[in-house]
Amino acid sequence: MQKISNFLIKIGTLKDMKRRGWVLRGVKNPESIADHTFRMTLAAWLLALKGGLNVNRVIKMALIHDLCEVYAGDSTPYDHFLPKNAKDLKKLVATWPRLSKAEKQHLSSKKYHKEDTALNKLIVDLPLNIKKEIKGLWIDYEQGLTKEGRFVRQIDRLENLLQALEYWKKDRKFPISSWWVQIEELVDQPDLIEFMISLEKTFTPQKGRAK
Amino acid sequence: MKNQGFFLTKEGLKRFKDEYQELKRLKSFKVSGESPRIFHSEDINPEFLAYQEDLELLDARIMELEDILKNVQPITVPPKEKQGVVGLGAMITVEVDGQEDELEIVGTLEANPSLGRISNESPVGRNLVGRRVGDEVVVRSAAATTYKIKKIVYHNNTKSGCKR
């Protein structure tokens, strides 16, 4: 029982860890990693009901997808070329970063190994069956191995988009376009495209989508 | 999805076939009650460790793989006269917001935008398919984004060298 309580104490730090993407964009009092996981898990549950997915697996995957950040910290695609002055940073985060194929592979692999090590450290003392389940779910999420893994990856970004839209609604100077760019390159499941369009209609009703 | 099948590169098809064979063997070990020592190798994807714990999950994955392999549509290089058009398997160079990027158009099972692998069913993928060099494709979300196509290449083996 001590090992379970130790694990829960460690993951409690996610309630205080501010998400880095919002910090870089100057959002005041941004959400924590746990805040994101809470709404993302609900979104995953509700939207999975329509898709013929293993809902139990989807919910668990959403719950554990960012646990590695207890030790690995939150990361963004901008981390490897952050400018020192605020003006350049503002310009940088206004667009989605474009990298060469080699850079994409290198950074993706580096991030994966860092998070893999962090997750192993976090779950090391958990009962073997739970440890294996968490690890299997995380690998599926990271690599999109199953339909549930691919679904949860897309839900993750859609929840990010929703949060970005909420910040943008409060402050129209918030750079929103890079969120749309990444989501439109990622989301490909019909129900989730429909959800994306519903967010678009809710937050920007004046803009029509061309068919 | 079932209507049009699952588009896979040569490499992707091999990976799914290998996984299917390995999971079938794992299931036969589980049913016979033997320890699947063969899967203790570090070369085996650790996801299989989770399958070892959950027979229901293992069966579900085997069924999913059977469906994929039954309905697979291999991605092949188009004839020369059609290689100037973006299609599945194309590696394209685009300019977006003043920056260059390399994208590969793949099916949903192999998509991973963080590695530049864009699903043909995503809004960007759908808009790019059928276009040619010089075309400017506007993806109409709340923030209209323009993709200018600068180069289209098909590799003979249509495989990609990156892990998903």
User: Major β-sheet of chain A, in short?
Assistant: none
**Straight-line N-to-C gap of chain B:** 20 Å
The biggest sheet of chain B, with number of strands, parallel, antiparallel or mixed sense and barrel status, is: 5 strands, mixed
What is the gyration radius of chain A calculated from CA atoms? 18 Å
Outline of chain A, from the CA principal axes? globular
Radius of gyration of chain B: 19 Å
How many individual domains of chain B?
2
Walk me through what this model shows.
The complex is a heterodimer of chains A (211) and B (164). Chain A is an all-alpha fold and 211 residues long. Chain A has one domain (2-157): Hypothetical protein af1432, CATH 1.10.3210. Chain A has helices at 2-11, 20-24, 33-48, 55-64, 69-72, 86-93, 101-123, 128-143, 147-170, 177-186, 190-203. The longest helix of chain A is centred in the C-terminal third of the chain and has 24 residues, at 147-170. The model of chain A has no long low-confidence stretch (mean pLDDT 91). With 164 residues, chain B is an alpha/beta fold. Chain B is built from four helices and seven strands. Chain B has helices spanning 10-32, 47-53, 55-70, 123-128, and strands spanning 6-8, 72-74, 90-96, 99-106, 117-119, 136-139, 145-154. In chain B, strands 5-4-3-7-6 form a five-stranded mixed sheet. The longest helix of chain B is centred in the first third of the chain and has 23 residues, at 10-32. At the A-B interface, helix 7, helix 8, helix 10 and helix 11 of A face helix 2, helix 3, strand 4 and helix 4 of B.
